[in-house]
Amino acid sequence: MGRGIKGLILTGIIILALLLRLKGITNPLLDDQAWRQADTASIALHMSGKLADFPEVFFPHLSYDAAVPQKVELEFPFLPYLLACTWSLLGWSDVWGRLWSVLFSILTVWGIYNFAGRIFSERVGLLASAIYAVMPLSVYYGRVIMPEPVAQCFSIWALDLIWSRRNTPGLSKLLGAGLLLAAAILAKLPQLMLLPVALFLGFWPFRRSELLTIMIYLLFTLFLPVVYYIWVHFGSENSLQFVSGIFSGQIVGTGAAYWEELGNNLNAGGMAFPIIVLALAGGLRLVFSPSLARTGLVVWLLVCLLYVGIVCSRISLDYYLVPVVPLTAILCALALDFLNDIPGTVGGMIVVCLLCFYTVQTLDPKYSWDNRYLVQAEWLKQNTPAHSNLILSDCTPMTFYYARRVGFRLLDQDDREALAQLETLPALYLVHLPESGRKAEFWQTIKNKYPEIGPGVYLLGKIS
Predict the structure, then answer these.
(1) Residue 121: CB partners within 8 Å, gap ≥ 6?
(2) 166 burial class (0-12, 13-18, 19+ CB within 10 angstroms)?
(3) How far apart are CA 456 and CA 464, in angstroms?
């Protein structure tokens, strides 16, 4: 296969990946994972007007559970900062954030082609990038306003650069690989699991003569993430400790595992039994591969298995599986490459087509959203004072983002305790969210006590 043909195939894969990710590109941030998307966009809103205020601009702020925007312990806000800059130039629209995510996702497709092609062959690179391009998890989470697309992009290029340094050693590649992996860890803390993978890819077999080089690489990889995560941990003053809370509350602090939900997430994400078998076949071939990358990729496989078994089984959110998709695609491609050119290529085309069809069929529910959130938020934005606080009836906080307001949520599930909490919160407006979990008796009490002045909006006191 000539280089021009391979270039055309890669272009076709990228176009297919782009078309799949453009579905629902103009949706508001109310489809699947609306909460996490609205959080990311809210951080961008709070950056507005402070883009040159370094380093404070990079401390994430959210809109809820306080009377003012509060500092929170979250990942480094790469995407929010890009989004805030774009809004300052082109005006506000959710589509800009989605387009940034699509760009990072497309760069990830290209990075997988580069990485797998360098280690094995261009055929494996093309097969791996094609499989990744159409996997449901990579498609949907390649167009969301969340850290996932950014983290995956930085991760695969970090691994590609540390591997390519073997053939063309140099300080610039070493530092570039370290800084890219640091950016991946900053974008999403679980990417720290790639550090041992990068060490084995870049330096195995370990030699004493390279000890200083490894130390320099580790310094450039870990220094910025350590400084940043310490900064946000202590600077957020224990309010909404998301990053440390995930590890201490949902993983270390619990023995519960949601194996059924994990199985459902794997199936819906495109990693059903046939794909897992294909990936395991690729893993078996990898074990007997003569490539210098074998040890690093086997370490990656073991890390991914531990990650799925320990983290993904305890957090039943499907986007926690996104980090395992690149390796799954590479292993599937390696298994297909075992077949001779024509059978392997035909098999690869069948796998890609089936995954593409599965993606189109299964992702539809993720794109649905409730317009009532926008109706309420627009009314609040137009009819309430700019600095007034809200109280939302339930946990979901997207209304704060679309109404451009801050405030509180009624977190207590007991309606009587929620009514008591309502009396203590310093806010003027209560918002009856769509699909509220509050009982009819709760809302009857509210209607008897407070006037409804808008669509599900109640005035709790006098406007000064």
Answers:
(1) 337
(2) middle
(3) 22
State whether 384 and 274 are in the same domain: no
* Number of domains the chain contains: 2
Where do the H-state alpha helices sit in 141-258?
Answer: 148-164, 171-187, 195-203, 211-235, 242-245
Closest CA to 38 of 264, 348, 369, 347: 369
Which of the residue ranges 105-114, 318-327, 409-418 would you say has the lowest mean pLDDT? 409-418
For residue 461, what pLDDT is reported? 83
Beta-carbon count within 10 A of 182 CB: 24
- Number of residues written out for the chain: 464
pLDDT tier, 253 (very low <50, low <70, confident <90, very high otherwise): low
pTM equals: 0.94
Q: For residue 255, what pLDDT is reported?
A: 62
Q: What is the pLDDT of residues 306-339, one digit of tens each?
A: 999 999 998 889 999 999 999 999 999 999 998 8
Q: Which of 289-293, 379-383, 403-407, 411-415 has the lowest mean pLDDT?
A: 411-415
- Torsion of Cα atoms, 342 then 344 then 347 then 352, to 10°: -110
Structure tokens at 352: 């890609």
The answer to whether residue 162 sits within a structural domain is yes
List, as one string, the DSSP characters of 86-121: HHHHH---HHHHHHHHHHHHHHHHHHHHHHHHHHT-
User: Which H or E run contains 9?
Assistant: helix 3-21
Alpha carbon distance 446, 27 (integer Å): 33
Report yes or no on 126 lying in a domain: yes
The span from the CA of 378 to the CA of 18, in Å, is: 32
Tokens, residue 369: 């959203």
Q: pLDDT of 164-191, one tens digit each?
A: 998 888 889 999 999 999 999 999 999 9
SS (H, E, C) 390-448: EEECCCCCHHHHHHCCEEEECCCCCHHHHHHHHCCCCCCEEECCCCCCCCHHHHHHHHH
**Angle, to 10 degrees, between the axis of helix 415-422 and the axis of helix 440-449?**
30
Note whether 41 and 94 are within 8 A (CB).
yes
Domain carrying residue 299: 3-366
Same domain, 358 and 430: no
DSSP-assigned letters across all residues of 206-239: P-GGGHHHHHHHHHHHHHHHHHHHHHHHHHTTTS
For residue 26, which of 133, 99, 100 has the smallest C-alpha distance?
99
Residues 324 and 390 in one domain: no
Residue 206 Rama label (left phi>0; alpha psi -120 to 50; beta): beta
Give the CA distances from residue 431 to residues 43, 318, 399, 403, 450, in Å, rounded to whole numbers and listed in that order: 22, 29, 9, 11, 12
